[in-house]
Design a protein that fits this description.
The protein is of the alpha+beta class. The longest helix has 18 residues. The chain has one domain: 50s Ribosomal Protein L5, Chain: A, CATH 3.30.1440.10. A 5-stranded antiparallel β-sheet has the order 2-3-1-5-4. It is built from 4 helices and 5 strands; from the N terminus they run H-E-H-E-E-H-E-E-H. Helices cover 33% and strands 18% of the residues.
């Protein structure tokens, strides 16, 4: 018995709309020259975790609920006395998504989460020189998986969408064609 992989609308749109448009716009001969999303990294920096261990546990639980994957705890690489951080102190947690889980997360982010933000005017075009897009969210409770009543400490997160080609212009065009709501 074989199981057929369900294709998300992002994958369909990429295949049917994005690749032909980028090939035409940039006069590319091969579809492999088009940028594609390689991975999504979700990071929560937790300044309060050094004083209160419940903050880290709550963040790990919520990040696991949002992504469906167990988060990795990030630790300080060096001591920063001004912030009261010692080397090796847990300062955050992160998850890296690839493949189907990545596509599913991006689908929920674009179709459910971003429209739930009050007074949402679009994503700031914060692409780095390699074409990777970073989105900052101030509150994890906008995700439907999180019950707002269970949130004791409001934590923000950074979502970095990494592309495989190091071309800012082509990546920006790809994100626009995929339907990312830029300002």
């Amino acid at each position: 018995m074989t199981t057929k992989k369900l294709e998300t609308s992002i994958e369909k749109k990429y295949r049917k709309d994005v690749i032909p448009e980028i090939k035409k716009t940039y006069k590319l001969k091969n579809k492999m020259e088009c940028p594609k999303i390689e991975k999504v990294v979700i990071n929560m920096g937790l300044n309060k975790a050094k004083d209160d261990s419940t903050v880290m546990e709550e963040a790990k639980k919520h990040l696991a609920q949002i992504t469906g994957q167990k988060p990795v705890v990030t630790k300080a690489r060096k001591a920063i006395s001004n912030f009261g951080i010692k080397k090796g102190t847990p300062i955050g947690c992160m998850v890296t998504l690839r493949g189907e889980m990545m596509n599913s997360f991006l689908e929920r982010l674009l179709r459910v989460v971003l429209p739930r933000i009050r007074d949402f005017g679009g994503i700031k075009k914060s692409l780095d020189r390699f074409g990777n897009l970073t989105i900052g969210l101030e509150d994890e409770s906008i995700f439907p998986e999180i019950n707002p009543d269970t949130v004791k400490h409001i934590k923000g997160m950074g979502i970095t969408i990494v592309t495989d080609k190091h071309d800012r212009d082509k990546s920006e065009k790809m994100f626009e064609l995929l339907g990312f709501p830029f300002k």
